[in-house]
Amino acid sequence: MSAKYDHSQIEKKWQKTWEEQKLYSPDINTRDNKFYNLWMFPYPSGEGLHAGHAFASTGSDVYGRFMRMQDMSVFQPIGYDSFGIHSENFAIKNSETPKVMLARTTLNYERQLRSLGHSYDWTRTVTTSNVDYYKWTQWLFIQIFKAGHAYKKKAWVNFCPGCKTVLADEQIMSPAQAGKLPPGYDKLEDVPDGVRVCERCGNIPERRELSQWFFKITQYADRLLSNLDIINWSERVKVAQREWIGRKEGINITYPIESTSSSVTCFTTRPDTNFGATFVVVSPEYARDNLVDVVSEEVQHNITKYIEESLAKTEQQRREDGKTKTGEFTGLYAINQLNGHKMPIWVSDFVLSGFGTGAVVGVPGHDKRDFDFAKTFDIPVVRVVVGADGDKSDIHDANQVQEEQGTMINSEFLDGMDINKATVAMMDHLEQQGWGKRETTYHLRDWLISRQRYWGPPIPMVYCEKCDWQPVPESDLPVILPDIADYKPKGEGSGPLADHPEFYETTCPKCGGAAKRETDVSDTFLDSSWYFLAYPNVGTDEYKNGPSASSGQDVFLNKQILKSWLPVDLYFGGAEHSVLHLMYARFVTMALYDLKLLSFEEPFPNFFAHGLMIKDGAKMSKSRGNVVNPDEYIAKYGADTLRLYLMFMGPMDGYPDFRDTGIEGMHKFVARLWRVIGQYNKDAKADEKTLQKLHSTIKKVTEDLKIYHNNTAIAAIMELVNLIVEANAYGRDIIEPLVGLIAPFAPHLAEEAWVSVLGNEGSVHTSVWPKYDEAKLVLSHKDIIVQVDGKMRASISIESKSAELEEEVAKAAKADANVAKWLEAKQYKTIFIPGRLLNFVTL
User: Fold this and answer.
1) How does pLDDT run across 314-329, given as a tens digit for each residue?
2) Alpha-carbon Rg of the chain, whole angstroms?
3) Which tens digit of pLDDT belongs to each residue from 184-226?
4) Whole-number Å distance between alpha carbons of 227 and 219
5) Cis peptide preceding 496, ω within 30 of 0
């Protein structure tokens, strides 16, 4: 073998060999020991993969390689999430069509992924913008519509002026979360609290009322929530989904409005405090729909103006702005039928239409937000709960808010009850009187599917004046996205396809009359909500031929393959998709399960959320100039060095910091590792100490890989290499398992060593993972350092059990001539560290 490791030649050699041998392409028609290993596929736009992608994808690949060496049939596919705004915006920036742009960028992404040496099955790649794929995305839309889970309605939506399309609530976030600054700001710390931006472009969304397609994901809220208890996911992702679903149990209380025939219905989770209610506050949407025609002419102008100003804000802005309370008094009063109290009705944008009914009853003595509102507008504060100890000393303190557990007061039949019993008793009372009804509410909203863009699957629906909305017949799928020159978004509430009658003019599939195709395209998250189902089906007749009238609704891809390979065994991806892709994929899978098209309802029983890699202490971004291009490092150091360094930087779920000095150090380790393997001597035998270190290393690396602690696994391998050099132990009994241990991290070097140095047949990546022997984890003898007055005088080897006993160690030490010489005729005391050291301290 060459004394120097030539990464360029060796890596290309083995990548070519692996593909020719189809080493990573399992027999998809058998499920023996199957393991479906999946990494979230990338958007193939921009300049290509950066090292953050390489960090995440390598973590997934390391685990896949480890499982393959556990005698598992590993299916590890890759593809491209090529539809959507990310790709289209980059095409616009470069003055080319998305199709032309993707032809170039997808090839670049593939080149980069191949250069990293990942064990992908390249025979089963999917690209979401290919017609073979999106005809099934359109079919999926139709099935959801037929099941009653899709509808179109006019609604207030978030409209991004930069992307010129609507956004789901989940796609709007703080600048820090999005990693983008809104226009006009140079630094994150200068952005005011409450500003929310588009997660793609950083612009601040506007509110517009548009007719849009929605999926009824809210109908699945309870299942989405309860199933979190039975899937093995990173806890931070579960927490994010629970909070986004936001299930609350409470009661709707109806209050008559004084001197009118109208009423206002408020949702509350704390009806126990209703004797302390002093006002009602409604959302701008509620006021617009229910109160504008009821209020007097004197206040109508102010109310209408306030509503218009509020509706121009996004929901996220209103959440943050609500910290400073604003509002308008409607001049109306709601009657609390418990005590006859007249409660002024206000409209305020801190109340969101999506919470309960969009109207809440204000109890300022026991809710901080209500308290702030009451103090702002000089509304009385009434206390009806005291501390659990019954202390009433502060009940007249107008600056106190009691939100904790406590005991009821000033509440007639509830007095003396704790708040939990009082809540149940009040709900019972309100329902018995016909004043209220128990209700469960959610923060989760229906999934807004429509996008007023070009680059996406046309929504397969047709509008007929006579027959209303009708799905495109399955036999007519796909609805092809036409090639048009004027594909840029208009920002006018409709997409570019609305300017092309040759596309939208059609006939109604039901009555045959004139009709119009939908000109919006569907959200890119619909494309990615089912891609994991497509991978194992690539190449099958079902996938290629697509849905047809004869197949009907009960046929979806190849049933046997779906049953054999799914659900996914391990999903590796980013926590930033907690309430986007992961929530949507769960919903779509549940819907398909209910249609009896799948045999499981959770797509990813095991999901690991990797961390975010930074560079020199800061998040990678073009503006900072610290984006790491893996191409440069692969060219200079090799893929194996880069892989090892990425996995060594820190835990997979942390925030590892990429530094050039670190990868240079890893490059030196790779060179040393190659030299160590090059010392292989088939006739050499290792001593007991080296074998013990080998077996303890195998045990640690095995256990660490199972929990994604790649950094500590590599550290253990480095320690083993040091001892091999120290012990001059280069026999097959040491070198062969060392090559096996390094294989998931440095696959090219390991393969070269396995074949060219060790002379093995086949691939190291389909060999058996090294096994450790429990008996060899403990040495039969231990070396004990013996000191006299702190200076080393001997090293003695003693049976391991005896090495833990001071009397036995002292006896053996004094028998050593050099130790005995320094102790002759002297008094002493001893300092003993079991199994390691004995120090004689002379007196």
Assistant:
1) 666 666 655 678 999 9
2) 34
3) 888 888 888 778 888 878 888 888 888 999 999 999 999 999 9
4) 14
5) no
